[in-house]
Amino acid sequence: MTVIIASGKPKCWDKTVETVPTKASDVYTGTFHRLCRDYTKHFLTTETVLILSPYYGLVELDKVLTETYDVRFNASGINKNTIQASQLKAQWLKLKEPEQSIYLFGGEKFIKVVKAFMTEDEANRVEYPLVGLGGIGYMQQKMKLSLLANEPFHNTKDKMM
Fold first, then answer.
1. Alpha helices, H only, 22-108
2. Which of the chain's ends, N or C, has fewer CB atoms near its CB within 10 Å?
3. How far apart are CA 145 and CA 117, in angstroms?
4. Which residues are in the DUF6884 domain (predicted)?
5. CB 84: neighbour CB atoms within 10 A?
């Protein structure tokens, strides 16, 4: 199983003067990202967890990141300021688990990003448990309540294409 989690804007370096090399697992500090990580760790047994960063691309949790950034995927997905589809494709080829389930924890804009770097077959297999819930507040609430009740919701959502 592969789980891809949106990076989010807040980073550990936002509160420091100096940017020091830090493992990706410790870089992203926002509530949304942390809830996604907590949810997937609690409910999904995963061989591969990747963070999808608009600057670094697909990042393994133990990869050391060396610089901060202020770049976002927009409603159109990839743009001139983000990592490009060709780079994401190369990363995906190295990191993907063949013929495994794929979950992406992020909003609707990530559907376009995924379609830019995965094959059509892979993109059609991706499950987006948070898409369709509304804004980030609703997504966070869904994950918080699910964790508190110890009841997963990811297997009850229809796959979005």
1. 24-27, 31-43, 85-95
2. C
3. 32
4. 19-137
5. 13
